[in-house]
Write a structure and sequence with these properties.
The chain has 150 residues and is mainly beta. It has a single domain, classed as Calycin beta-barrel core domain (Lipocalin, Beta Barrel). Helices cover 0% and strands 71% of the residues. It contains no helices and 10 strands. The chain has strands at residues 19-29, 34-48, 51-61, 65-76, 79-83, 87-95, 98-105, 110-120, 123-132, 135-148. A 10-stranded antiparallel beta barrel has the order 1-2-3-4-5-6-7-8-9-10. The chain is globular and about 40 Å long.
Length: 150
């Protein structure tokens, strides 16, 4: 069954996330030294008027290995939230193309601070700061290209 990616001209919050994305996740230690890179595949679509689904497939999530997340995210205006066995998410739209998320990950045992920048409608960068036990654990940069548009 085809996914509901919504209208590309919609100005509703989180519409810019919809579609299939292919990317790479680069991992750096707390001092900024490169550690590794891995492919990430993402499919994001609307489940209903106030819920979007994130299917995120890491070929090699740092320190974990192959990891697939399926998360239904509820939208309330410019904010969003989700919770399941793998994670808890709180997010907010700052501008139509800049979003921030805090993720409490049961998989990596970290608090993840994500800042999503849409460089253009089909190019997205995520800058991630992961904290464990109150200290910076790692930084990650994920660059994505949208390969299937709404």
């Amino acid at each position: 069954m085809p996914q509901s990616y919504g209208s590309p001209s919609s100005t509703r919050s989180y519409q810019c996330f919809m579609g299939r994305w292919e990317g790479a996740c680069k991992t750096f230690d707390a001092q900024g030294n490169f550690i590794e890179s891995s492919a990430v595949h993402m499919d994001v679509y609307w489940v209903d008027e106030n819920t979007w689904h994130l299917h995120e497939d890491f070929e090699n999530l740092y320190e974990v290995g192959k990891t697939v997340f399926h998360t239904d995210i509820q939208v309330n205006g410019k904010t969003c939230f989700a919770e399941n066995d793998m994670l808890r998410i709180e997010g907010a739209e700052l501008t139509p193309y800049n979003y921030v998320f805090t993720i409490w990950s049961n998989i990596s045992k970290t608090i993840v601070y994500n800042n999503h920048y849409f460089l253009d409608p089909n190019t997205r960068r995520i800058i991630t700061h992961k904290v464990r036990d109150g200290k910076t654990h790692i930084f990650q940069i994920q660059d994505f290209a949208r390969v299937v548009q709404p």
